[in-house]
Every structure is written in structure tokens, then in C-alpha cells.
Write a structure and sequence with these properties.
The structure is a single chain. This protein is of the alpha+beta class and 162 residues long. The chain has three helices and seven strands; from the N terminus they run αβββββββαα. The strands form two sheets. A five-stranded antiparallel sheet has the order 1-2-3-6-7, sandwiched between helices. β2 and β3 form a beta hairpin. The protein binds nickel (II) ion. Nickel (II) ion (NI) binds next to α2.
Length: 162
């Protein structure tokens, strides 16, 4: 069973390494990621959040199938941005508005190493951008301006200390 690490753990600020081996170990790890995501009632989970610095994340947005992304690259983002409330299993209980591109194109490999391209908009695009950020050591609060980030962080820290 994979444990989800939270804000303050150094791993969450580090850049993850590309996956080079596509075998049963990777497939098993992805299954465990799905389970940890569902257990946490999240709609996305990235490997660094379970203390593994590899470029893998999964999504499970309502009404969409479970998806796994290995070595993903965001290849296109729309100039239009939208504001939407975001949360993260590594900052439990904190929700704040974050501005992100409305439509994106992502290229990645599946658990067998087969490449694919996906165009997404709305909530799925948002989750993909959020999870992809985790692979680069970036949290959703890092997408806020300095004042808003500080406020959100103070709110989170007050909550976890209670
Ligand atoms: Ni997150």
C-alpha cells in the first residue's frame, strides 16, 4: 500500500526522472497509484506524491476512464486561461482558485511504453496540468502570486496544526 506524502516533504519539490523500463513492475506500480488515488478520493495522483521520483501519474476524473501517463510532455496549451478551484492530496483540506490554460495537448507513453497523444479541456486538462507539475516539483500553490500563495499556505498550516 502506497502512502501519500504531504507538504513539507522534500520529494515534492524535486524533479522526477524519466521511466526507462516498461515491465510488470511499472504496471504494478500504476495499479498501486490508482488504488492510492481512489483511497484518497482524489482525481489525480503523481508518483512523487508517494515518494517515488519517476515521471508517472494517473487520473480518474468523474465520467472519464482511469488513465496512466508515463514520461508525459505538455505539447500545447491554449492562450485562454480559466480560474477553477483546486486541491491536492499532498495539501489535504486546502482549496484555492488557480488559473490555468483551458485546453491542452499532452503526449505520453502508456504502461507498456506505447506513445499516445491526448487533447483535453475543462477539468481533465486542469488535472493533467496539476499532475504534470508534480513531476517538476511544482505544487498548485506555486501557481499563485506571492501574496495568494502565502495566504493559502498559512491557511493550510493553521489547519494541519489544529
Ligand atoms: Ni496534487
Amino acid at each position: 500500500m502506497l502512502d501519500i506524502i504531504t507538504y513539507g516533504n522534500e520529494t515534492l519539490t524535486k524533479k522526477a526522472e524519466p521511466v526507462t523500463e516498461f515491465g510488470p513492475e511499472l504496471a504494478a506500480f500504476i495499479e498501486e497509484l490508482y488504488e492510492a488515488m481512489k483511497r484518497g478520493r482524489g482525481i489525480g495522483l503523481a508518483a512523487p506524491q508517494v515518494d517515488r521520483l519517476v515521471r508517472v501519474f494517473v487520473t480518474g476524473v468523474d465520467g472519464d476512464k482511469l488513465r496512466a501517463f508515463v514520461n508525459p510532455e505538455i505539447v500545447l496549451t491554449s492562450p485562454e486561461e480559466v480560474d477553477y478551484e483546486e486541491g491536492c492530496l499532498s495539501l489535504p483540506g486546502l482549496y484555492t482558485m488557480v488559473k490555468r490554460p483551458e485546453t491542452i495537448k499532452i503526449q505520453a507513453q502508456n504502461e507498456k511504453g506505447r506513445p499516445f497523444v491526448l487533447e483535453a479541456s475543462g477539468l481533465l486538462a486542469r488535472v493533467l496540468l496539476h499532475e504534470n507539475d508534480h513531476l517538476n516539483g511544482v505544487l498548485f500553490i506555486d501557481r499563485l502570486n506571492a501574496a495568494k500563495r502565502e495566504k493559502a499556505l498559512a491557511q493550510y498550516l493553521r489547519k494541519v496544526r489544529m
